[in-house]
Amino acid sequence: QVQVVESGGGLVQAGESLRLSCTASGLNFDASAMGWFRQAPGKEREGVSCINYSGDSTAYVDSVKGRFTISRDNAKNTLYLQMNSLKPEDTAIYYCAAGSRPAYYSAAYYLTRPGNFYYWGQGTQVTVSS
Asked: How many C-beta neighbours within 10 Å does residue 52 have?
């Protein structure tokens, strides 16, 4: 049984930082691209950042480039998203996505293709106050 569990969300002020974590079990973690997606109230789900199976390819939506960093530890089956200089417009529920098909494409391929991920976490709320 595959489980994808996010943690690390919370309420912060603009300019502060948060680190999201996602642990995935029951799947071949190091053979899967991983991704972070977010959905704000009244808006469509958006790809925030993706990383390929080995960690040497990453991709970001333009609005977070230079502020967010995605990384993974395949030995711990864990995905991270370091979010710095947070802005009120980053407020959303953040979802971890796992189990990519195909498995070995570059990170940019998955950023706009959430349907290529089979497994999703329950989401973690990030709220940034101004």
From this structure: 22
